[in-house]
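Annotated sample (chain length 516).
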Amino acid sequence: MKNFFQYNVIRILLVMIILSSCTTKKPEQVDNSPVPFEPTWESLALAEPADWWDDGKFGIFIHWGPYSVAGYKDQNKGYAEAITNDMYKKPEAYYDFFMEKFGAAPPDFGYKDWIDLYTAENWDPVAWAKLFKDAGATYVIPTGEHHDGFVNWDSDLTDWCATKMGPKRDLIGDLAEAVRNEGMKFGISYHRERHPSRFTADFKVHDEPFEQVAEEIRRVPEAAELYGPFDYSDEFIADYVARWKEAEEKYQPDFMWTDDVPIFYRAEGDPQVVKFHNAFKGMIADYLNNAQKWGKEVYFNNKGKFPNFPDNVGCREKDNLQFDTIGPRYQNPATMGVSYAYMHNEEVNDLYKTPAELVRLLADVVSKNGNLLLNIGPRADGTIPEGMQTRLLELGRWLKKNGEAIYGTEPWYTSGEYKGELIEEKDVHYMKHSMRIHEEEYRYTTKPGCVYVIAFQLPEDLVLLEAFSAADQDKIHKVTTLDGGKIEWEKSEKGLILKPESVSFDLASVYKVELN
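Output written by the structure step:
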């Protein structure tokens, strides 16, 4: 009995040990669900660029709205979409133009009346999407609402929208479907943050409308919803967030694009401005968290001469943004001419950047850690000017052969080299940003195992690339061109020497330097 008792005790102890062992060795449940973003800058700074945006490098930006009806700004200078403010700020400068084009001027025929002429009657979203795909774009961001207060999507929050007036179509929804059917990503740009100051004289927290705007509202009271409000009240802030939220829920955009907010630095510290700034935190966090539920990678920008948010939140952006050297991860919303919206003078005089200039711009931006968001301005009827279409297709043709040096690349340790004399320096289309062109210029991008050399000219003599002087002879394995051509090369103490005697040149040449 004693042995039996001992045996059972031992058996029970063994079972307990085994059970205890199983319990202690059982792995803990791992929660793989994403951590929600909090409405703080510290939390939002953790948002990484979406892979599709990080690799895509090239997108199309679209400014299209009732302002496209005029296609004009005083003296054909600047941004045509800024006419919505300028026409009321200095009406004498526009009177003759309005009388010739419309037969009337404000307040008899004001901005609200242009909406009937914003017809989109020739608009084909499928054709647009195919054009953007053929241009080599990987994402598209149209204007959902500009500073003017008119909404291009199907809105339940305002009657001043494209499904109820003007086009009588859901411009955002139809384009989103067409773009995604072509395999591209789709974002929405939202500019309402500047609306309270659009039809007033300056950026103020509380202001009054221009006299002609006030008169239009007296004659047509419902126009107050389009032109106003004229202050950054609690009601405006709530409506600002609600409108984006509506677009977010209806279209699930892959990119949240917001314009710079001058009121942030013009009236810094004002209680209403503080409230508005804080509203952005919640709006962005909500967007990022909803994207996790959708199973989407999304991203957002941080725009302005003085950035809207801390530097490490979102991608850095401002109009025609370029850097002299490698910068932070950024996006350049570049104009094809001067204006973002359609400018008739640019079309008839063919004032757009040339295909070679666009290739140069794209390569320059990508080599310095940026994405190019190239803007187009369609006419009010929905057609894209032929000069813009031609340039987009030329850019796409170049990318089809040389896109390996753009898509999915990263900056090398240096962005490029400039050789020879400065042959041209010009103020591009009245903008402050300058285009400096040397006799010889090269930009570098890289992928694991290789460096791409993008040359903006075909030299008649040998090319010395001094950036490669630090590379050992045995590290350079092979040098070719992306169009299939061969090129003679040799390594010297001063760098890599190329002999491009038989290399063809088409807008820009790309040499692929393969490394061991």
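Annotation: The first strand starts at residue 58 and ends at 62.
Annotation: Residues 1-27, 429-433 have pLDDT under 50 and may be disordered.
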